[in-house]
Automatic annotation (TrEMBL):
The gene is LOC106818964. Residues 1-16, 17-44, 45-72, 73-100, 101-128, 129-156, 157-184, 185-212, 213-240, 241-268, 269-296, 297-324, 325-352 form the C2H2-type domain. This is Zinc finger protein 845-like. It holds the Pfam family zf-C2H2_16. Coiled coil: none annotated. Its main location: nucleus. Keywords: DNA-binding, Metal-binding, Nucleus, Repeat, Transcription, Transcription regulation, Zinc, Zinc-finger. Gene3D superfamilies: Classic Zinc Finger. PROSITE patterns: ZINC_FINGER_C2H2_1, ZINC_FINGER_C2H2_2. Signal peptide: none annotated. It is found in: Nucleus.
């Protein structure tokens, strides 16, 4: 009879057990006992395989499946299996696209109640989880775990094709696409395709002209945080990339890749008009202008134009009178390094 009374409360909605600490109420005294432990911090159920402890027997049973690998709940539409009935219920909504949990402040909807609870904190500004190493706070314990890896250096996700490892599963998924060649994200304004939503968002800044990242030292702005970090090295002089063959160092990993080719002799860029090959795409573009006759760099003081930016800079010194190259033996100055080299021969008894 007692069990029947409890069951009838499902239909009547009666919740006679009320917490005297918060507003929680329930239909079953057993649920109330478990709830009280959220206030007391009591965790009487302990795993005999690891240090895990919890406040109710059901959670302990679910936890033990992480050790046994047991996944008793199976989807009848696909091969998905999981350790909890709640997980299966949420998964099934991916097939019917049901999102029953709705935010009453905005249009957000989701499949999990826990996701809604987390979302609501974004409106309240509530950040319950705090890092014990820095000032970082967040709305989810999963985010805090990911953040802590910044301090520990832990990279638990490892690629089984190469040596790449990372701190987040989402990054490993994106990395796998470098092996598979998959580029699921495409721009709706051009033919650009990429491996991640983040890269696509940054790319779209090219079309919109949006440059949200600003340098705090000069007026430079750009569409990508990574580009801003590289730019800031101009001001700091930081050169974190060091060649392990010679003393060369640089601020950009791309420059280092090109430099390594000076040691390996690799020239992967080939001209399709002649036999010219080179170690970087910039040099190939410049070379190709010898075939096309293109001279994109024009002087704004005369009719001079050329195929390379360094040539334009040298040319402009004719107009400005700038002579940055100086002899360390006399007062001679020149606007070109070749002229200085010829001049120095006069000091060594050579004939220029």
């Amino acid at each position: 009879m007692r069990t029947l009374k409890r069951h009838k409360r499902i239909h009547t909605g009666e919740k006679p057990y009320v917490c005297d600490i918060c507003s929680y109420s329930c239909s079953n005294f057993g649920y109330m006992k478990v709830h009280i432990r959220t206030h007391s911090g009591e965790k009487p159920y302990a795993c005999d395989t690891c240090d895990y402890r919890c406040s109710n027997l059901s959670n302990l049973k679910t936890h033990k499946r992480t050790h046994t690998g047991e996944k008793p709940y199976a989807c009848d539409t696909c091969d998905y299996r999981c350790t909890q009935l709640d997980g299966l219920t949420a998964h099934k909504r991916t097939h019917i696209e049901e999102k029953p949990f709705a935010c009453d402040t905005c249009d957000y909807r989701c499949r999990h109640l826990s996701s809604l609870v987390t979302h609501i904190r974004t409106h309240a500004g509530e950040k319950l989880y705090a890092c014990d190493t820095c000032d970082y706070r967040c709305t989810e314990v999963a985010k805090l775990k990911r953040h802590k890896r910044i301090h520990t250096g832990e990279k638990p996700y490892v690629c089984d094709i190469c040596s790449y490892s990372c701190s987040r599963l989402s990054r490993l998924k994106v990395h796998f696409r470098t092996h598979s060649g998959e580029k699921p994200y495409s721009c709706d304004k051009c033919e650009y395709k990429c491996t991640s939503a983040k890269s696509l968002k940054q790319h779209k800044g090219i079309h919109t002209g949006e440059k949200p990242h600003a340098c705090d030292t000069c007026d430079y702005r750009c569409s990508r945080m990574r580009t801003l970090k590289r730019h800031k090295r101009i001001h700091t002089g930081e050169k974190p990339y060091v060649c392990d063959i010679c003393s060369y160092s640089c601020s950009n990993f791309g420059y280092m890749k090109v430099h390594i080719r000076t040691h390996s002799g690799e020239k992967p860029y080939a001209c399709d008009t002649c036999d010219f090959r080179c170690s970087n795409s910039s040099n190939l573009k410049t070379h190709e202008r010898t075939h096309t006759g293109e001279k994109p760099y024009a002087c704004d003081m005369c009719d001079f134009s050329c195929s390379r930016m360094p040539d334009l800079k040298r040319h402009k010194r004719i107009h400005t009178g700038e002579k940055p190259y100086t002899c360390d033996m006399c007062d001679y100055r020149s606007n070109q390094p070749a002229n200085l080299k010829t001049h120095k021969l006069t000091h060594m008894g050579g004939k220029p």
